[in-house]
Amino acid sequence: MMRTDFDYIVIGGGSGGYAAARTARESWDHVAIIDGSENLGGLCILRGCMPSKTLIYSAEVLHLAKKGADFGLDIPQAAADMAKLHQRKIDVIREFAEYREGQLKSDRFTLFRKRAKFVDGHTIELDDGTRLTAKHFMIATGSTVSVPPIQGLKQAPFWTSDDILDLDFIPQKIIVLGGGIVACELAQFLRRIGSEVIQIQRSPHILKETSAQAAACVEAAFRGEGIQLYTDTALQNVSHEGQQFTVAFQHAGESITVEAPYLLNALGREAASKGLGLEAAGVETRRNGKIRCNELQQTSAPHIYASGDVAGPHEIVHIAILQAELAAKHASGRPTEPIDYDQLLGVVFTDPQIGSVGLSEAQLKERGIDYLSADYPFDDHGKSILMEAKHGYVKVFAERTTGTVIGAECVSKDAGELIHAMAVAVTLKASVRDLLKVHWYHPTLSEIWSYPLEDIADEM
Same structural domain for residues 258 and 317? Predict the structure, then answer.
């Protein structure tokens, strides 16, 4: 007979959901995973991190090939073969997806390929009518594309990030709505494969989650590559007639209208919390639909936990995994500690990339922390100059009295790799003097960190 009573039920089989199930299985024998999506794997593997970075990297190789003359190379022609690019993405994703599917389908768990909703605090009902009960639950349903209330947008047949990641042709011209991480990464990808790109951002800068200084570096790179970037706008309406989209907006006191045959809505995502019957379980949500959690990921119903995009506060896959593992350990009575978001690590995969860790300068000022800072530009650094990677800088923040590194920012080629040197420092509470004991090899991109570290040490 099929088991219907479990120790722990996870709703959602993405990276966070699997991490919760795996961790719960260390303590309990009866763990179930509910996932009714068409394909197993979750957002990161199927429609997020892996496919986007696969395509972005191919576009970077193409971009460098087109700049061959800058490196003393004669490359007569370089162009995207979208059919092959698309197939490579499929092949790369398949390997990750098949591995995750095997993990979810292993005999360690009971997998239900259905959708679920709560009927009470300890019971869920699947869409075939089956009812399951559990002592503890994890909600890890992720997020979906949001459609802000802009006149005409909901009725327009716009593309989402899913559509861009599944392209097998090059759009001649496209309008990108939004200036967040997804919008910027995909706008630059589209431009580099050969599309004419018009990007419209409502805030004064793109990438408003980052510093204005970092955003300005990326904006300069975007405009240098030919992206028609409008910032500080007020979107008025979207219309679609025949084969053409029209977007009207206000910018710098003027009314502007742009047209293109394709439109990407990249104005954000929202928590996938609808339809879960959360009210029946006593689980509260915030106004934005995210599930309200405490520092141990418990919802307003303490035996029900949530993690990842559906809970926040950061929509990053490694945070979803950390939250899920924390929650499962807490549910099973094992000792654990809340996540320290003051050590938060973030990466934006534009070119230049943006890497950040720890407290930002804005947070330091807001908290009244006495700190020292120093920076150094990549256009005066040996390795970046010979790589023609001169956009950007590194910046370090340290406590004034102890020199302990409490934050850092990097805008550069491969900033996502470089920032991990400072992530180790922030997590282990190393001082600038500790880091200056490191052998910073020359010539490398990484050695640039030694310059602001020396400046702070000299100032102490």
Answer: no
Whose tokens are 């654990």? That residue is: 336
The helix/strand/coil state of 449 is helix
Q: Take residue 118 and report the two structure tokens written for it.
A: 């709560």
Same domain? 254 vs 274:
no
Do the domain assignments include residue 115?
Answer: yes
Position 251 pLDDT exceeds 70: yes
Residue 38 confidence (pLDDT): 86
How far apart (Å, rounded) are the C-alpha atoms in residues 263 and 222?
18
* Residue whose pair of structure tokens reads 């399951």 in the numeric block: 132
pTM above 0.85, yes or no: yes
* Tokens, residue 292: 């309200």
Residue after which a domain boundary falls, among 278, 302, 331: 331
| Residue 62, helix vs strand vs coil | helix
pLDDT tens digits, 146-185? 999 999 999 999 999 999 999 999 999 999 999 999 999 9
For the chain, the helix, strand and coil percentages under 3-state DSSP, each to the nearest 5? 35, 25, 40
> How does the average pLDDT of the chain come out, rounded?
96
Q: What is the pLDDT of residues 368-398, one digit of tens each?
A: 999 999 999 999 999 999 999 999 999 999 9
Q: From CA 158, how far away is CA 40, in angstroms rounded?
A: 25
Q: Is 376 helix (H, G, I), strand (E, B) or coil?
A: strand
The mean pLDDT of 212-239, rounded to a whole number, is: 97
Which residue segment(s) compose the domain that 450 sits in?
342-459
Closest CA to 393 of 356, 424, 358, 428: 356
Confidence tier at 1 by pLDDT (50, 70, 90): low
183 plus 281 within the same structural domain: no
CA 237 – CA 149 distance, rounded (Å): 10
Nearest to 309 by CA among 50, 127, 49: 49
Helical residues (DSSP H) of 317-412, grouped into ranges:
317-331, 361-367, 382-386
| Angle CA 202–410–403, to nearest 5 | 120
